[in-house]
Amino acid sequence: RRRPPAERTRPQDAASTRTEHHLVARETHFRGFAPGRYWVGVEGVLEDPGTCMPVDECFELRAATVLPRRTTRLALDVKPRCCAVLVKLLWSRKGVSDGAVSLLGVPDSLRYTKQGMARLEVPLGTHRILAGSGDRVAEAALELQTLRSVSLEIDLGASEGLVFKGCPPAVAPYLRGDLGAALHALRSDGQQQLAQRLEAEIHEHGGQLERAALLYDQAGDSQNAVRLLLEVKPEHSGYVTACERLADSFEREGELEMAAARIEAAIDRADRGRVAALYLRWSVLLERLDQLDGARGALAKLGEIEPDHPELAARSEQLEKQRAGERTRVQLPSDGEGYDADTDGSRYQLLERIGTGGMGVVFRALDRRLRREIALKRLPEAMADTPTAVTLFLREARAAASLNHPNIVTLFDADEEDGQYFITMELLAGATLGALKRRRGRFAAADIARVGRQVCEGLQYAHRQRVVHRDVKPANLFLTHDGSLKIMDFGLAKSMEEVRRATTVIGGTPYYMSPEQTRGDTAGPPADLYSLGVTFFELATGRLPFTGGDIAGDHQNTPPPDPRDLAADLPDPLAELIVQLLAKQPAARPASAADVASRLAAIASEADASSVAQRIAASPAD
To answer: pLDDT class for 392, splitting at 50, 70, 90?
Structure first.
């Protein structure tokens, strides 16, 4: 039977007896026992050999049978179950004597500080440590990979990690995990936003994901809102609502492709009373994406379900006009004469909208000063409301304008007019790799190698100029009619990130971001290579490597699937290159874009040789 706690500590000089040995190490011997059955127990405190800090208390009891004139060996496993974490609680770098700490989600882990310190027993894994005193609570993330004891400092006087302040009655219940009592105290104190976040946690733990996501959104925690909405499964009763709310968020962010995909998913699960409105919205999104055939198809489905829908006739007529080429366009005189360049005082005249994306709306426009057609991209209006983003935008645009390479879209100008920021660039004819993938499905290995080489050549040139793209994806890679690949939107990703940080709008999920970008670390050339690996994976298999609820967490921790599991005909060299590009650590990826280009050149040559051999084998004999 285990000793009571008061008797477990023994003086260091306690003498051992025939049946009881103290201060044992790896092995101890009991001698002179008659044959029979005995119980052997190990009890004590395990200490970290480096710090002498207590790690765990152990108690193990095993049966042993002693045979005549034989030695019986017994092995007992006393490996610690938890790691000792010594939490030092500070307030503006001074020790706190009346604080408490706990492990989030473990109510009985609450410990009070003694001389500003408290000890927690924490299992391996990723955890959130809570600390509180007075009127505030702070938290710190902790990842334990070994059972060696660690020390952790939490400063309640710093803003970093602060959960709330100014509400003493909420501190104790929050630390002990009584979120309901903490919620009541915060509401009584007028801290509505934090109360909503706590209520969101309660609903999340209860499995009410849509309600929790709404509360997270209202509390300004957009990341958790998106995470929960993406976790709602198709069989869940709230799946359609979750898809609609995600589509709202993606549309506000300008991610029209993801918005359309969510509405399409909702249609498959919606009841008859909601499906008509979903088809209409799907049609509008597809039209904005210039997918007119898909938009007409969505309206046709709407007509089958609800032929008398009040908006059906007008929408159908509008799409038919576009189909017949009756969209209003400004026709320029072929000789450049007869045009008044000062009609409205603006240098650029918008002629036609030609695209929409997360970075803004793109128009075909006329540069009145130089009398040439260009592409003009209007950036989201939120740009003007974020001074840091404006400064970054102008600086990054200047850096992008200095890039002169055949595989990078030429940037002409970056300016502001009437509070609207825009850039002008060369006008291209063709389609993005994203649009081509939607039309044709998977790319052949040879095609990936050919376009990939051009992407790498453009990236290598930019990286030599110390310019990082930060948003490499199929929608930003444009293939012209003559087969040239152009990288678009250099310099915009960083400034748009500042816009998203400054607003409470739910941002799009980082499907193409490198692990270091999702953590908020500095993005260098290896980040572009990781995004290129995601792009190659999608082109080769027809799907993204990660599409679950926690996209950022998957990019940081989850090994990517082997692309050959989804595309059995993918050549091994290309599959191995994709896997290496998707390495979690930047140092494990290829050394440079030039290195990737040389490997793609070899893959393209092998594919060409294979194609020639197949044609020869298939030709009739002479």
So the answer is: low
